[in-house]
Amino acid sequence: MFLASCATRQDAPGDVAPQVVESSGEKGDSFAETKIVTPGMLAAEKLASTEPSVYFDYDKFEVKEQFALTIEVFAEYMRAIPGSRLRIEGNCDERGTIEYNLALGQRRADAVKAALVSMGIDGDRIETISYGEERPRNSISSEAGFSVNRRADLISR
Questions:
Q1: pTM
Q2: Neighbours of 129 (CB within 10 A)
Q3: How many domains does the chain have?
Q4: For residues 33 and 53, what is the distance between their CA atoms, to the nearest angstrom?
Q5: What is the tens place of the pLDDT at every residue in 24-70?
Q6: In sequence order, which residues have a C-beta less than 8 Å from that of residue 89 and are 6 or more positions away?
Q7: Contact (CB, 8 A) for 3 and 115
Q8: Domain of residue 88, residue span
Q9: For residue 112, is it within any domain?
């Protein structure tokens, strides 16, 4: 299972001042238009450009190292916006029984949640659910089709 953390100081949400990133108007113009960007806005922008899924190997629920950045982006977002919540939906391919796939999907969602908690996110802000094989992203019965169905989807709320 992938778990990592860094011993860095995290600023409290009120500790980081908004930044002026763009200003228009002439010098001395008291009505110059200024764009203010907060840490929450930056985190939301980064989140919007991130693939919101973590993919798994066949019959596995260990988070692979290649998805560390995806999980870190969601952690940054949740730190920047203290009221945010996350829903993690575990999914499987069609192989296996319905019961087995529901349990495996739950273990996948729980593994992603554990990675976020290890990064300092309060587990009470994260909901997990399994859909087993019920919500395939690809209906082609091939390894390529199966591989996109073995995932945990992260949905910010």
A1: 0.74
A2: 13
A3: 1
A4: 38
A5: 555 555 555 666 767 777 777 776 767 899 999 999 999 999 999 99
A6: 105, 109, 128, 129, 130, 131, 135, 152, 153, 155
A7: yes
A8: 51-156
A9: yes
